[in-house]
Amino acid sequence: MARYIINADIVRSKIDKNIYGNFSEHLGRCVYEGMYVGENSDIPNVNGMRTDVVEALKKIKLPQLRWPGGCFADTYHWMDGIGDKAKRKKIVNVHWGDVVEDNSFGTDEFMEFCRQVGCEPYICGNVGSGTVQEMQEWVEYLNSTGTPMSELRKENGHADPYGVTYFAVGNENWGCGGNMTPEFYADNYNRYAGYLHNYEKKLFKVACGPSGTDYNWTKVLMEKSGKRMDGLALHNYTVDPMHGWRDKGDAVDFNELEWASLLNEANRIDTIIARHSTIMDQYDPEKRVALVIDEWGTWFNVEKGTHPAFLYQQNTLRDALVAAMELNIFNLHSDRVRMCNIAQLINVLQALILTDGAKMILTPTYHIFDMYKAHMDANLVETYLECDDYEYQGIKTPAISQSASVNENGDMTITLTNIDPNAERSLVADIRGEVYASASATILTADKMNEHNDFDAPDRIAVKDYNGISLLGSKLSITIPPKSVIAITLKK
Ligand code: AHR
């Protein structure tokens, strides 16, 4: 029996809603077809933006969306994507399949998409192949009034400034963003960021951070640029270590050993965050600078028969467990982790939504974001969990992950995962510091580890009400079925 204590009256930190953000790149069918189908499409749209997708994102209250990349951002020149669409420059998308990018979705279209969804835009500027002037003018176009760039924005039909807050100064500058050393990038960050003016909105400037366990990158950036940034962006994908990056394994066709290995890898983000945070603490003990995990999620081989550079993969219950576990970990580190972007929104990597022409399905990962949305902007409360491991062929990972928060109405949300595919876990949570009158729960689970939705069966795996919990006084008895995620709401 696991031991679980929740101190409802001890607040650790606020869970910033921006932890539940997403990422949209000009890659494969994410932007074109996924988000944007054009004004003349037969697929229902408003100003070219897919209505079904916009509605699905409104439902999960998507807080912020990163764009235009990724590696695409390192080659993107924003002026190619504004003005008369017929005259926009066509370029080759060199990172993602050498396909023609006609720039019909540019800055003003991205702002329109965010407006319809009701989310904040998070723009990634080009340090790799762009100039300081280009980046400075982009911010001027977005946010200023009475300037040459605001006149240009007006000519394009947008009189009012957009008031963008979140702006990243480069992407993966240790790799596709210029192959820089941390020292060279930090100097560049200081130079570029210095020319990004605050107009009506103060910018939240995000510096390119480390890849995975590159702790030296964090140290150098904090030392040389820590005082000039608001966020440092870590990228960490979950790739099965039994496979590695060359042959990453299949998204759907996997066995229990691959299940155990991938979920153990997902759990490693806890240590990675803790170590980067410890380094950041040395330079920023007040935790002013956020750790922004603006690319995370599973990465498998592309689905057979699809374009190899489009990174399309199916999404199963296993992906849902990865998302649920990592989101619990992000919540637990919300004193430092305040913004995250799973990769990516639609049709790419660990997508929330898949489309096929006019058809659209919600993935198990989407359902996790739906179940967890009550954590957004709630207060993380202190918890203590002792549980056994799920062990398979020597790979051991704690069977249960958890986080608990209390919202402004005093309601508590508890999210729990059981990664053991064979056995349930039972626990009695001792709720201290507050009295609750009622408890209800939802669950995401399936009979098979690789259950997934497809265009013929869009609801094979979906969130259901769950009655395997009971509240008696301060004791909350919980049974977590094998391979499942549950979200519990306690009301006063
Ligand atoms: O998300 C796919 C790619 O992964 C992004 O373009 C890049 O930043 C990362 O390497």
Describe the structure.
With 492 residues, this protein is an alpha/beta fold. 24% of the residues lie in helices and 30% in strands. The chain contains ten helices and 26 strands. It has helices at residues 51-59, 107-117, 132-143, 148-155, 182-194, 215-225, 256-267, 269-283, 317-332, 364-372; strands at 2-14, 21-23, 45-46, 49-50, 64-67, 91-93, 99-101, 120-125, 166-169, 204-211, 231-238, 290-298, 337-343, 353-356, 359-362, 379-386, 389-392, 395-398, 400-406, 412-418, 425-432, 438-444, 464-466, 469-472, 475-480, 484-491. The strands form six sheets. A ten-stranded mixed beta sheet has the order 23-22-26-20-19-16-1-21-25-24, with helices on one face. A hairpin with a 2-residue loop joins strand 17 and strand 18 (395-398). Helix 6 runs parallel beside helix 8 and helix 7 packs parallel to helix 9 (317-332). The relative contact order is 0.15. The model has no long low-confidence stretch (mean pLDDT 98). Residues 25, 69-71, 171-172, 295, 343-344, 349 line the site of alpha-L-arabinofuranose (AHR). Alpha-L-arabinofuranose (AHR) binds next to loops.
